[in-house]
Amino acid sequence: MEDNYYELALNDGYFKWLLGILGFKDPINDCGYISMLSYLYSTDFKLTDPVVGHDDNRLDDGFELRAQYSNNFTDPEFPTIFEEPVSVLEVLTAFAVRIDDDIMYDGALHASKWFFIMIDNLGMTNFTDDRLGLDWVIDDEEQIIDIWMSRQYGPDGKGTIFPLKCPGVDQRNLEMWYQMQEWFRENY
């Protein structure tokens, strides 16, 4: 990983567009999470082997975000991103948009709300730039993301984006879409 991953991300129009989906109009000045978000953007999302259920749909959702961006913006550097793996930030952003559009649609945009609920569920809301600085060591965040992606979390989903208090089934064996549905049943 590049030492200056956040500087590289800030010079990327697609990254800024993703942050716009999450409600950050000026990511450099009003975000407070630029280091964490840059790290998530520079981290490839990896599925377990074998893939649980249809978790590969999360990758498709990330590629769909790229297609939306390329349909709306002319960026000479952008076509090469279709060759790159989908990032953790893209998966979480796409999941937040899908929750907002398909599950909780009320005519308003709440993708940022769902995104930060997932970040909070992972235990990462305190990873702010003020607290950690832009050059903080990412070991804790990397471990949290690796536990989530490799499904090394508890059977109740603790350590994932949708932990449960009273799970009916082992969450490690349930695809993310159904984990999300279980979480909504328990919380809404």
Walk me through what this model shows:
- The chain is mostly helical.
- The chain has a domain at 5-133.
- Helix content is 54%, strand content 0%.
- It has helices at residues 5-10, 13-21, 27-30, 34-42, 56-72, 88-103, 111-122, 129-132, 139-150, 176-187.
- Helix 6 (88-103) packs across helix 7.
- The longest helix is centred in the middle third of the chain and has 17 residues, at 56-72.
- The mean pLDDT is 85.
- Tell me the number of strands: 0
Mind telling me the C-alpha Rg? Answer: 16 Å
Structural class: mainly alpha
Q: Percent of residues in beta strands?
A: under 5%
The succession of helices and strands, N to C, reads HHHHHHHHHH
Helix content: 40-55%
Helix tally? 10
The unreliable regions are none
Q: Per the principal axes of the C-alpha atoms, what is the gross shape? A: globular
Averaged pLDDT:
85
Distance separating the two termini: 39 Å
**Main pleated sheet:** none
What's the short story on this structure?
By secondary structure, the protein is mainly alpha-helical.
